[in-house]
């Protein structure tokens, strides 16, 4: 039976912007977190691509990855993910091929099928390109070919990129990417940190249909888990009110800037908003180290995943770093 010691721990970073700090502060804190994660022994740190969201500073994902790679030594760094409908596959391959050339064996490319933003922003990103989510399988294969060794008479090559063999992951919150990852023999990461409803079904579909490939001999699954770990359950619940406010703002179309914790959410959300936030955070682990350890062991027993990839929206940056220290203590206990 799998234990937490057997399970890899990683981090998904969205470079959250606080309501009292600048975007520069968030970007520099993202590096501070990466350096902290490297010292603690986390497997990888990924950045997520989002656009037109005032509370998320990781929109220029490849650029921020370069900053983090230049200032760390060994931790694997990648995208979780690049929203492929927003980009030409060749450009993505060249960007990540460049990073992989400069920082060998450290760069990963996680790909998502959704645009990750609203329709107006999507049009601003694409500027007339007729890219659709239905083209996702062909675009993934195109990128894999750009990272492979060049073939005779290949008309278009990614320079840099060709022959770098950058590891590609598929990300998803439904069944589509699970099926495609299984077909292509790629590792799969489920976005249960915000869309947990189909987690079990997607993992089962992926495992049942997995075809071994040159990339992967057997299925490999990671799952997103929001976390707020503190010395006591009461302190963690207090810190988590920043998370609750952020998700409430997302669901109601308000500013996503991270707000300070409050003593109580009573009177700050409606009954329906509270239920919606709880559904969004169904996989969240909030509490003392003992409470979170039990929760993670329960998730591991139920889903038998290979890796947890944690998010954290604690307001105070030092307490945010401490959250990831406590998580690693739980793993190593």
UniProtKB/TrEMBL annotation:
InterPro entries: Bact_Lucif_Oxidored (IPR050766), CmoO-like (IPR019949), Luciferase-like_dom (IPR011251), Luciferase-like_sf (IPR036661). Residues 10-298 form the Luciferase-like domain. GO terms for molecular function: oxidoreductase activity, acting on paired donors, with incorporation or reduction of molecular oxygen. One of its GO terms (cellular component) is cytosol. To bacterial alkanal monooxygenase alpha and beta chains. This is Luciferase-like monooxygenase.
């Amino acid at each position: 039976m799998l234990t937490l010691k057997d399970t890899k721990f990683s981090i998904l970073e969205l470079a959250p912007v606080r309501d009292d700090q600048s975007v520069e502060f968030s970007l520099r804190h993202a590096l501070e977190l990466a350096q902290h994660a490297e010292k603690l022994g986390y497997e990888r740190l990924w950045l997520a691509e989002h656009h037109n969201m005032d509370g998320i500073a990781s929109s220029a994902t490849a650029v921020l990855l370069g900053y983090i790679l230049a200032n760390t030594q060994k931790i694997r760094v990648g995208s979780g993910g690049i929203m492929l409908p927003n980009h030409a596959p060749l450009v993505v391959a060249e960007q990540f091929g460049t990073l992989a050339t400069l920082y060998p064996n450290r760069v990963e490319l996680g790909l998502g099928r959704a645009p990750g933003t609203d329709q107006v922003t999507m049009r601003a990103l694409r500027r007339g390109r007729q890219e659709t989510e239905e083209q996702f399988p062909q675009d993934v294969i195109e990128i894999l070919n750009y990272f492979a060794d060049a073939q005779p008479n290949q008309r278009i090559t990614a320079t840099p990129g060709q022959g770098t063999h950058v590891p590609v992951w598929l990300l998803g919150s439904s069944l589509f990417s699970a099926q495609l990852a299984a077909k292509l023999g790629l590792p799969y990461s489920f976005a249960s940190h915000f869309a947990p409803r189909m987690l079990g079904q997607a993992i089962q579909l992926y495992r049942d249909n997995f075809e071994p490939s040159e990339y992967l001999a057997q299925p490999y699954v990671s799952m997103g888990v929001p976390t707020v770990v503190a010395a006591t359950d009461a302190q963690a619940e207090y810190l988590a009110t920043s998370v609750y406010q952020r998700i409430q703002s997302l669901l109601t179309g308000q500013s996503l800037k991270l707000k300070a914790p409050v003593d109580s959410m009573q009177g700050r959300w409606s009954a329906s908003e509270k239920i919606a936030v709880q559904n969004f955070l169904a996989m969240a682990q909030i509490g003392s180290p003992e409470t979170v350890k039990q929760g993670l062991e329960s998730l591991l027993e139920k889903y038998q995943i290979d890796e947890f990839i944690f998010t954290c929206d604690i307001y105070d940056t030092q307490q945010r770093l401490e959250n990831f220290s406590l998580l690693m203590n739980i793993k190593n206990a």
